[in-house]
Amino acid sequence: MKLRIQFVAGILAASILVSILTVRWLQGQALAAVHKPTQVVIRAVLYDGYASGDADEAVQLQNNIFLTTTIAGWQLSDGSSSTASFPAGTELAPWQTIWVARDGSAFTTHFGFPPDFETVDSSPAIPNMEGIWPRYTNSGDRVMLVDEQFNFIDVLLYKEVTTPQLGWAGATVQPYLVNGIFAEEGQILQRKVDPLTNQVFPDTDTAADWIQDPDDPIWGKQVRYPGWDSDQFQQPVTISSQAALTVAIAPDNSFDLFLAEISAATDSIQAESLTFEHVGIANALVAAAGRGVTVTLLLEGGPAGGLTDQERYVCQQLEAAGGACWFMVNDPAQDVFDRYRYLHAKFMIIDGRRVVLGSENLSPRSLPDDQKGDGTWGRRGVFFATSDPALVSQLSAVFQADFAPALHQDLRRWSATDPVYGAPPADFEPELLNGGITYTVRFSAPVQFQAPLSLTLLQAPDNMLHPDAGLLTHINEAGPGSVIRVMQLNERPHWGPSNSTSLADPNVRLEAYIAAAQRGARVRILLDAYFADPSDPLGNQATCAYVHKIAMAEHLDLSCLLGNPAGLGIHNKMILIDNPAGSYAIVGSVNGTELSHKGNREVALLVQSSEVHDYLAMMFDWDWPKTLYFPVVYNEFRGRADHLLISEVLYDPAGPDDAEFIELVNPTGNAIDLSNYRLSDAVEPDDFEDSRIFPAGAVLPAGETLVIATTATGFQSKFGFLPDFEILSTDPLVPDLIDDPAWGDPATFLQLGNGGDEVILRNDLGIVIDLLVYGSGSYPGVAGCPLVAAPDHSLERYPFWRDSDVCADDFRDWAFPNPGQLP
Asked: Which sequence spans correspond to the domains of the chain?
C-alpha cells in the first residue's frame, strides 16, 4: 500500500515550512544556524522535461556519508506552499542515490527506469511522496531540501532567481547551451561527481559544484539528458590483455577484416554504426543470418542528410534474411526523444567473444571491396579487433545499454511500410561498385600484434574527457622527447558557439596538443582536406591557421596540415602518443567537436603498445603531405605552381638597407611545413654569404604569404607593421631565422647586394625548390632578371602563382612594394 497523508495535513505542513523560513530570513540569522552539513545533497534536477507539461520533472538526492541517513519527513520545496515529503521509514544507505519524480510513469518513459518515489499516483509499483510536487519553473527557481525540523539541508538556485537564498552564494546555475547542439529541454542539472568514488565533490553552495559550470572546461561545460547511462560508465577501465590485437587500415584492407570476422560468426553479431550502406557487408551478414546467426544492427535514425535509399535497401535485405535493423530515432511529435544527438559509435561484437571497433561506418567508401591489385579509392581510417574477454564484456555492456527496446522508446525497427525507416522505392537500384584505381594500396592485409597489451575502452558522453583516465591523460604527460601525431576528420579551433573564441570556449584536446608542444613535445596534426570548407570559421583550415599562429609566435615544434591520402578524405579519428614512459594509440569514432565528446554515443580504444604505435606512426608519416617539386628548370611551364615560391624581393630600399625583405607565397591548396627550410644567398656552402633556417613549427597556410625582413624595426619603420620573421634580432615579438652553420660564413648575414645576388629557397632535404637571380648574381643554368630601374622598386612575381623558371617572364619591376599582399 502506498504511504499517503491527507491533503489538508500537507497544506498545513507547507504553511508551517514557509512561515518558519520567512521568519528566519527576516531575522537575518546566520547561515550556519539553519544550514546543516551536507550529509545528503541534491545531486541532479530535471526542471524542463520532455513530457507534456513537464510531468517528468525530477530531483535526485544522494547520501554523501558512510552512514545510513533517515530522511522520513524531509521535504522538497521551491519555497512556495507546495512541498513533497518523504514517507515514514525512508532511509538512504551510505552513498545511495534516489530519484524523486513528479509523475513516475512519465519519468520512466524518458529515463528508461522508474523513480524511487513519485507525487502523482501514476503507478502502484512506485511509492508515493506525501504532499504536492513543487512544479519547478523553466524560467528559474530554487530547489530546496529541508529536514523534518525545517532546517536547510541543501539548496540549488538555477536561472532567473534574484532573491538571496540561505545556503547559496553567487550566480545561479545556468543550463549549458550551444545553439543546435545542446538544448535546454531535457537537460539535467547535475553535480560534479568523482568517477572513482561516485561521490559528489565537496559542496561549496555555488554554481561551481555543477557540471554546467561555465568556468571549468574539463569537469564543467557538460550536459546530461534522460536515458544516459553515465553512472554506469563514468570510469574508464584499463585491462592488462593477453589477447592479440589486429589492426586494419582503410581503405586498404578494412573490408577484409570485416568479411573474415562476419564469416567466422556462429552465434550472434551485434553492431552499432552511424550509417550502413555497404552491400558487400550486407551480403555477408545475410549469409550469417542464413547460418542461424542472430544479427542485430543499431543505426543512427537521423544522420546528416537523412537516411539514404541505399541504407533502406541493405536493411531490407538483412531483415528478409532474418536479421534486424534498428534505429535510434528522434520524434518529438510522438513524445520520442533520442538519448544521444548522434549514435556515432562504430563497433561490432561477434559471438560475444570478439570485437571490432574503429573510425569508419559500414560504408563502401571506407571499406571498398574491389580487387586491390590495381589500387583502390576511399577514406583513410583504422580498425582494431581483439578477443580480450574483459573488453568484449565492456563493449557488450555498452551495446546492451544502448539497445534496450523494452526500456527506451527511441528505438524503432525497420519496417517495410515505414516512410522513413522502411523499404526504398520499388525501382531503386543499389550501388554495387566501389573503390577505384587511383590510390596505390600501401597495407595489403591486416596485421596482428601479440600480447601483452594494455587496453582502455573510452566512450562518450560518459568518460571521454576524464582527466585521469580518458583521452587527455597521456597527452598531458607529453613533454621533451615526446611525439604526438593526430589524424582527424575534423578538429575545431574552439568549442562552444560558432562566434566564441578559444579563450572563452577552448577545444580542450586541441589545447592539450598545443600545451604538449609548449612543454617541448613534437606535435603533428593532420586534418582532412576532402570535406574541409575553407570558409568555415570552425573548419580545419581555421584550426591549422590558429595552430600555426601559436607555433610561429612561440617557436614550437608544432605543425598542422590538411591531407587526403587515399582519395575520399581522412575519416580517421586517431591519436598517437610516443612518450618516454610509453607509447599509445587511440582509435575510435570520436571527432574533434564538442558534441562528439559530450553529446554523442562514441567509442574509442586506447592501446598501450610500442609496436602498435609504431605501425600506425608509419602510416601517419606516409600520409603526412609531401610537396612534389618541379625541377628548377622546366621550360615553358605555365600552370599553377604546386610548390612554395619566392614572390617578392626588395633588395634596394630607399634609405637604410635594414628594410630589405623577401616574401614567400604558398600557391597550393595545402599548408606547407617550413620546418628546417633554408633561405640563403649562398650558392655553395663555402661562399662568403649566408644561409638561414626556418624554425621547427613554421608553417605557411594555403594561399598565404610570409615576409622575412633584415630587421623587424627597419621594416616596421618603412611599412608600418611587423614582418613574420627577421634575420637580425631587433624585436622580441618577431621570431628570427636561425643561422645555418653549415652554409656560408658565420661572420656575415643574409643581406642582398644592390648590384646583383641570388635568393635561394631550399627544402628540409637541402633541395632547391625556387630561386631568384638578378643583376650580377649567377646560378648554373639560370638566366637572371635585370636590376630594377630605381631604388625602392621590388622584383614581384606576376602572377604570383606562376613559375616558368624564366625570371624575366615571372617577375616584374614594381615601383610599389607591397609585402604581405598579392597582386
From this structure: 7-226, 245-413, 455-623, 645-814
